[in-house]
Amino acid sequence: MKNSTGIQRLTWLLVSSGWLVSCQTTDPQAQPEVLFTQPANFPQPVYALDQNAPTKAGFVLGRALFYDGMLSRDGSISCAECHNQAYAFTHHQHEVSHGIDNQVGTRNSMPIQNLAWATNFFWDGGVHNLDLAPIAPIENPVEMDDKSSNVIAKLRKSSRYPPLFNAAFGSEEINGPRFLQALSQFMLTLVSGNSRYDKWVRKEPGGTLTDEEQAGLTVFRAKCSSCHAGELFTDNSFRNNGLFIQGSNDIGRAHVTELEEDTYRFKVPSLRNVEKTLPYMHDGRFYSLDAVLTHYTENVQKTQNLDPLLQQNGRLGIALTTHEQQQIIAFLKTLTDEAFLRDPRFVEP
Amino acid sequence: MRNYFARILSILLISFTFVSCHKEALDSIDPNAKNSVSIEFDNRVGDQKMVLGTTPYKNGSGETFSLTTFNYFVSNIALKKEDGTVVKFPNQYFLVRQADARTQTIQLTDVPAGNYGELSFMIGVDSLKSVGGAGDRTGVLDPTSYGEDGMYWSWNSGYLFMKMEGTSGSVPATANIDHKFWLHVGGYGGGWNGSAKTVNNLRTVTLPITNQATVRGNVAPVIHLFVDGLKLLDGPNKISLAATNSVHMPAAAIPLADNGKTMFQIDHVHNDKQ
Predict the structure, then answer these.
(1) Shortest CB distance from A257 goes to which of B145, B147, B198?
(2) Are B131 and A51 an interchain contact pair (Cβ–Cβ within 8 Å)?
(3) SS3 for A222?
(4) Which of A107, A155, A258, A260 would best serve as a mutation to test chain B binding (most B beta carbons within 10 A)?
(5) A256 in B contact zone (CB under 8 Å)
(6) Shared fold status for A7-191 and A196-338
(7) Architecture of domain A7-191
(8) Could you tell me the residue ranges of all domains in chain B?
(9) Which residues contact B64 (CB under 8 A, 6 or more apart)?
(10) Where are the alpha helices (DSSP H) in chain B?
């Protein structure tokens, strides 16, 4: 009995020290086995990791699927087409994403990062579980335009996938739940929590913020963090941030809930890697952070369901001086996580 | 005269009681015995057999139509014994498709012996399953398994609980040139973090089993339901295909969900010894 306790303690020590080492490592290639880590400054994940914990083989399979055009009707569009690692897995330099046959949708692709902490997915929150998210782009006629059942059929016929499914799930059977779980395993590992800001918060080496950046953080906390809350920089809510109604006249959250009060409400996005995720807003209408800050300061429109936080003290928008805007932008750039954006594990295999 | 009738009636009643007591004595229920119960969903349109294709039907609005698809999910089945105890069958989901006869009889296994006088089930897939992960969504719940016969909304994550599709000359060409109609019912009441926020079109059907399903070690009852698809159009809410021919969102499907609840009736039960 004593002996087994000793073994347990030793195991625990080994496991915990291994975890510490992996957290501290700066070379991602050195620790490829560590697939999902919760940064010390992050809250508990939302995703039920006990039901689908990423494994090395599951991650490898999910990554192969993520980069494979076979998931689209004509083989031309992979997930990565609209989710490019260098831009925090968004579609760069397109207001709205381009899909199959060069068709365009109505919304800008969202970053794929820190999804284990997300309570819903897409700008309107129409999907409640990460596992189910990939079906939406696969079956959307202007994105990948296939049937998920047909994608499964194509994978079964390929020579590449049966061994990958075998490695990940213990048999060569290719089915919907395995397909979706593998994609989740890959996406779950896309954790961005090593920006300069994170290191500063955690008091780690490299964690320095300039005076300008710290001033920006102070203004940010006072003026922006009601919505872009916590370490994920979003409160996961849906709000109308007073954009001009233009273009597709997208009603946002109401498209899903069919509730009048949700008209023009969109998800509050995370600001992690925001420097790289341009263009901004659900329809990609702003090409720079300056334009975003200008919107909040000067151009908030009193449209239906405008968020109360943007109409306080008899004024629309947020009172920010030009200097404060620049300070906020300086701070936001400290949320750029170069290690994440260049992590070789996430690159097309 | 009145006396004469009363006497006959009492004789009949006594003999009934006697017969039923007698039967009861012979047919004791073994508390450890189990058997299966099958439920047959016999889809019809009014008093006609339901056939997909060109067969013409007519609704209460006088509109002629034919059907190409008729599907519905059945889940959360419960059987109530004559003593009031309820046997539930959680985590069992069935998709009845008119295009596939094999799906039209479903089987519950390991049903405890007893006399069951009520059947209830949900039309659709409950909210708990509708927010669960992919690992829970096997068999008929696998959202990647439906092919062209989509029973899942990918953009508004959730199952279609019922769908009826077809063509009708009453669907104006301005709606679509092929005069097609799509009546899709879904919406499990999801919302922010699972709070009941969106439209909930889940409906529970409760049906008396008048002659009882008598499960015994050697009796596996078959409950035969008549399912009248016409009630989807001609239930408490009158649906005219000229006006309502493209329903793809939960709110618009509320009248259909209410109608769908009235489609089912138990016609008879086979309690044959095996």
Answers:
(1) B198
(2) no
(3) helix
(4) A258
(5) yes
(6) yes
(7) Orthogonal Bundle (1.10)
(8) 1-30, 32-270
(9) B56, B57, B58, B168, B169, B170
(10) 2-26, 127-130, 254-260
CA distance linking residue B188 with residue B186, whole number of Å: 7
Evaluate whether A140 touches B154 at the Cβ level (below 8 Å).
Answer: yes
* Subunit contact A177:B193, Cβ cutoff 8 A: no
Each residue's pLDDT, cut to its tens digit, for chain A (349 residues) gives: 344 444 444 444 334 433 333 444 344 444 446 799 999 999 999 999 999 999 999 999 999 999 999 999 999 999 999 999 999 999 877 777 778 888 888 899 999 999 999 999 999 999 999 999 999 999 999 999 999 999 999 999 999 999 999 999 999 999 999 999 999 999 999 999 999 999 999 999 999 999 999 999 999 999 999 999 999 999 999 999 999 998 888 999 999 999 999 999 999 999 999 999 999 999 999 999 999 999 999 999 999 999 999 999 899 999 999 999 999 999 999 999 999 999 999 999 9
How is chain A split into domains, by residue range? Answer: 7-191, 196-338
Q: Which of A102, A110, A123, A103 is nearest to A84 (CA)?
A: A110
Structure tokens at B36: 């299966």
Angle at B159 between CA B153 and CA B165, to 5 degrees: 75
- Cβ <8 Å between B157 and A51: no
How far, in whole angstroms, is CA B117 from its chain's centroid? 17
| pTM of the full structure | 0.86
How many CB atoms within 10 Å of residue A12?
A: 10
**Interface ipTM above 0.85:** no
- Contact in structure between B74 and B121 (CB atoms under 8 Å): yes
User: What architecture is the A196-338 domain classified under in CATH?
Assistant: Orthogonal Bundle (1.10)
Q: Rounded to an integer, what distance in angstroms lies between the CA atom of residue B130 and that of residue B200?
A: 12
- A140 contacts B144? CB cut-off 8 A: no
